[in-house]
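User: Show me sequence and structure for the first protein, then do the same for the second.

Assistant: Starting with the first protein.
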Amino acid sequence: MPTPTKGPRLGGGPAHEKLMLANLSAQLFENRSITTTVTKAKRLRPYAERLITLAKKGDLAARRRVVAQISAKNATNQGIVHELFTVIAPAMAEREGGYTRITKIGSRKGDNAPMAVIELVMEPVSPKQKVVRDAEAAAAAAAPAEEEPAEEQAAADAVEAEASDEAAAETPADTEADETAAEAAAEETPEEDK
């Protein structure tokens, strides 16, 4: 008998393991979170994530493969497959993997088996990536706003240049008269103080 790729088999044989994984994945999709042993949770993770990846494709062939793997012979499992394709897969559309989360919760009371909660990760992809996207959008919005003050500065520089050109264009007689009037005013002020 060939060695399985993902650790020792669960249950008595390969058929029993397939049925257990199908039932666990159906319960996971129905309830969004289940409590099981750590070993079963670790074996369920790749199985459930593969089904979610198929559901993200959304075509008829993918739906038939999921139905075959979940053993959707009864109406309850048909509803679970429908929910997987219409609710869970669109929620995972931006996520490229890591659709499930395993959290260890301690040992079971009767046989001291290590227990875990496996749940679907329905949150947005990453708040850090969202912050980065928002910052890029704000930077793109601020770039045109920065160009406007530069245009206003250019207009102000043009006005100053025109004023300096007008001042240079004044006749020398006008400037000499202004200078003599300023000197006379300066001479009169100190004499009045005495």
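Switching to the second protein now.
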Amino acid sequence: MNNNLMHLHPYPFAKMASLLADSMPAIDYSEIKLGIGEPKHTPPQFVLDVLQENLDKLSSYPTTNGMFELRQTIAHWLEKRFFLQHINPNSQILPVMGSREAIFSFVQAVINHNSDADASPTVVMPNPFYQIYEGAAILAQATPYFVPCTPDNQFKGSYRSVPKEVWERTQLLFVCNPNNPTGAIMSMEDWEYLIRLSDQHNFIIASDECYSELYFDEAPIGLLQACAALGRDNFKNCVVFHSLSKRSNLPGLRSGFIAGDGDILQSYVQYRTYQGCAMPIPHQLASIAAWQDERHVAHNRTLYREKFALWMQDLGDLLELRMPDAGFYFWIKVPEQFNEDDERFVKALYEQANIHALAGRYLSREVDGVNPGQGYVRIALVASVDESGEAIRRIRTLLGATA
């Protein structure tokens, strides 16, 4: 067995299962799941129709780099959404089986172990973070370096505080934009700083943008958009990951793409040829339909806006709710009556209200004696509007509200 497996942390939901193992949910209430970031809005029917109409194409092997029609559709979507003059569908785009598997395999492909180096390669990532960043780094025999996302830096992470010696051994930087779980987004100034830093130290910037279409006001600036604004149409050392899971409520389709630096993707395609992870043809055709339509995405945003407004209006007097810039998570400071203990709060939500949430400490790592997720709870507004209203009523009761 790979010795690095012993260094992996249990997944956050495994930790939650252990925490609640001896607990019983409130039997007077039906279950409301707000812990896992799994979209529950109705998938677009026209996408399901395309999938069903093409099931006969499962008789053919898909190619590693996918259908040209899918890559071209993605290129057109990227150009329109992120104001790009041109992106090459043949060299700068690669369909993948969801962003999760692509993020993991990408790290295995790009980390380079130089026998002359004094230290292991470093992968820099936000803290809290999507646990695949850390696990992929560990299994690639790289060292994770965590950048705390706190109120002091608007929950984006202070990359300017990272020591120069860390950047000198960094091979890969993960940015989650919009951030999971904090909902923070990167500004053009933030992107320009990181791109210049990448030029200086020659590391790859990988931007996880799977929540980019769940915004409330202005659409977030993506990494490729920032590159284009700086005149870097080759997207040197920059890649982005996108997915239909959140944008189109299609988590089970396992459809996404990676786009950016063509030289990096050329080598990554070779890696994937051996990995054998190509998207089935019916999934590709359904994905084309999804990427070509924006009406269902706009409707999706409207539903999330409605739910966030409901929570802010009906719970803002009892909980320290901070409206995220984008995404579908609340990153909530635990109330004082629970001693700001995130584990205690999520247990109370489960035992007294039958609501599933996620303890913030499980999404973070301790750095210099401080875990930036401790004292926070992540709540995913994935349930229906009606369920959201019911969850709010239960939480108000839990918190002792009289009105």
